[in-house]
Specification:
alpha/beta; Alpha-D-Glucose-1,6-Bisphosphate, Chain A, domain 3; TATA-Binding Protein; 3 domains; five-stranded antiparallel sheet; globular
């Protein structure tokens, strides 16, 4: 398997596309781009993270870089630590939701945000040039960060939402019973600690930080049936599941039903709307990506919030949020971004907002969601061939849409009477991803028929 290079950094399979020399090459390129200063390092708990961290630290020391190590912590925690330590940058050793045989590197800027498209391109160009220069002196050291999760938790509990109201005490008084599944990864310690700080009774599932996954790491409904059963059997109020680096959050309602991951950000927007005066009294902008559910538009309108869209990718959403001074944002994959805490997808922030919402509305999660418009989402992966662009035009025509009404900022996105469709090429594979959302379930088969007629579907 070839090394995957994208806006999310690099990732590959251990011993194949991800080897010690590959790691050292990209770390050296990363250091070349950053200003002087220390680098914060952490990993998501995969066993391979141990030797990768040794290579990362050794390479940075050879470059005379001060290194702060955080151990097994979520990617958003590393982002917070970069800011807290005034570091030059950070590295999260993670392959996100990829299987256990994968690992990778996410590159973090001095402001705690990820590298953007152009910075990644520059990094990749540097990595492809092997003529690096190393200093002939070295006085850099490695310093473990004591209690690294404290900094992240403190940012949350110091939010005006809790400092200026009695909401924290109200949440504690609810004594929510919560099932949490970390899949033995980076959320294993910090998220139960967060939940206990909210006075929750926590039923921990797979919280051992071994990096040995007990189910496929992407938190899709078919992968989290165990924790769904536990929520149901223990009569818990809610279940939370995160991916290995804990930037994505998926919910299970009190009935033991997995909640569509697209609704995590909708619920987060709802929570911010309910408490808007404590987040940003004069702000009314929300940013999501082009592939995120239209339910977010409905929720935003409930509170007079102005919703905008950005290309898929955390840094693209963050860039748009900064431009608009948005109060909240995120992506339909379960990623919630709250600038008041930090500019990054953060499952802890998502949990905080959802517990706040449950406390305010005094309703179970299923009853909150049932008030939202009912939509149906279908996804495809299709092969790209020489006639791909012509097929796109046929697809657009099949839905009676003018090319003038197609948004091309991030692939092709258009809306019609049936709903919306977004198609975008993969940066790493010869495929395109198609996502479509409709209000009427009967339209799904019609969409499937059109897609299958025009493209060779490789995954649905």
């Amino acid at each position: 398997m070839a090394l995957v290079r994208s806006i999310s950094g690099v990732r590959g399979t251990i011993g194949d596309s991800l080897t010690p020399n590959i790691v050292a090459k990209y770390i050296t390129a990363f250091s070349e781009i950053l200003p002087s200063g220390a680098i914060v390092i952490g990993n998501d708990g995969r066993p391979s993270g141990k030797w990768i961290e040794n290579i990362v630290v050794g390479t940075l020391l050879a470059l005379n870089r001060q290194v702060f190590t955080a151990g097994i912590v979520p990617t958003p925690t590393i982002q917070v630590l970069v800011e807290e330590r005034n570091a030059a940058g950070g590295i999260s050793i993670t392959a996100s939701h990829n299987p256990e045989q994968w690992n990778g590197l996410k590159f973090i800027n001095t402001d705690g945000t990820f590298f953007n498209k152009y910075q990644n391109q520059k990094l990749f160009e540097f990595a492809d040039n092997t003529s690096f220069k190393f200093p002939n002196f070295n006085n850099a050291t490695v310093e473990p960060i004591k209690n690294p999760i404290h900094y992240h938790l403190n940012k949350i509990f110091e939010l005006p939402l809790f400092k200026e109201t009695n909401l924290l005490e109200k949440i504690k008084s609810k004594h929510f019973k919560v099932v949490f599944d970390a899949n033995n990864s980076s959320g294993s310690e910090i998220i139960p600690t967060l939940l206990e700080g909210f006075g929750c009774e926590v039923i921990k599932v797979n919280c051992y930080k071994t990096g040995i996954f007990m189910h496929p790491p992407e938190p899709l409904p078919q992968n989290i049936s165990e924790v769904a059963s536990i929520v149901r059997n223990t009569k818990s109020d809610i279940g939370f599941v995160v991916d290995p680096d804990a930037d994505r959050l998926v919910l299970i309602d009190e009935l033991g039903h997995p909640v569509l991951e697209e609704l995590t950000i909708a619920l987060a927007i709802h929570a911010v709307g309910e408490f808007l005066e404590y987040f940003y009294p004069k702000g009314n902008k929300v940013v999501i990506n082009y592939s995120t559910t239209k339910v977010c538009e409905h929720v935003a309108k409930m509170f007079g919030l102005d919703l905008h869209r950005a290309p898929v990718g955390e840094i693209n959403v963050v860039t748009k949020m900064k431009e608009l001074d948005a109060v909240v944002g995120g992506e339909g994959s379960g990623g919630v971004i709250l600038p008041q805490c930090h500019y990054g997808r953060d499952s802890l922030v998502g949990i905080t907002l959802i517990l706040s919402l449950l406390s305010k509305l005094e309703k179970p999660i299923s009853q909150i969601i049932e008030k939202y418009p009912k939509t149906f989402i279908t996804k495809f992966q299709v092969e790209i061939d020489e006639e791909f662009d012509e097929k796109i035009e046929e697809l657009i025509n099949a839905f009676g849409i003018s090319l003038l009404d197609v948004n091309t900022e991030d692939g092709y996105r258009f809306e019609s009477d049936f709903g919306w469709l977004h198609i975008r090429k993969s940066n790493t594979e010869p495929i395109a991803r198609i996502i479509c959302e409709v209000a009427n379930e009967d339209n799904i088969q019609k969409i499937h028929d059109v897609i299958n007629k025009l493209f060779r579907v490789v995954k649905c």
